[in-house]
Amino acid sequence: MMRSEEYDASAITSQWYRPSMVRALLLLSSVLCGSVQAGQWSTYRANPMRSGEIENTIGPALSLQWKYVPVHPPRPAWPLPSEEMPRMHNDNAYHTVVADGVVYWGSSVTNKVYAVDAARGKLRWSFVTEGPIRFAPTISNERVYIGSDDGYVYCLDARKGVLKWKYRPGPSNEKVIGNGRMISLWPVRTGVLVDDNVAFCGAGVFPYEGIYLCALALIVEP
Q1: Which of 10, 66, 138, 143 can pair with 121 through a Cys bridge, CB separation 3.0 to 4.6 Å?
Q2: Interval 98-120: pLDDT, tens
């Protein structure tokens, strides 16, 4: 079992890539295969293939049961007018995932991961990182995996929200000011993709500083 702020170095591979190689990360979700339990939407777009669909049965009548309104709306990393040209933003909404009756998402404003009861809409727990969270969590084997602009990948207990371990793909804890926020020079802005007990992620947005792709071998507790 990985403990807080510890990891098995022999189980981790990390490599620096030139900017031209970063395309591999963008194709990662297309080449990996995996499955998800029926009725579960436990990662971004449902599964490692990012198909955006699951097998489930929905009744003919739908009605609003509850709604959870965050205090702060999303704050994209590159809002106008700071960006040089309009682009598609993947962090202009809070992307939620659902697993085992719980709804999870991360906030780019409060730096927190939230877990809300899917039946009642009540907050179960929240966990704070040291930077904005811009991608949906991934839930696997009762663990929540999330990447943060603070440069770390976090693994949390899905039931209690306590930290199990965290890992920094980048070479140091060096920080910079990015769009008014203090972030890592190598923020984790790929989300975390889990397939066959391996967690894939990437860190870095500045090509001249290096982009790091990482595969973490996950130890599954019995």
Answers
A1: 66
A2: 999 999 999 999 999 999 999 99
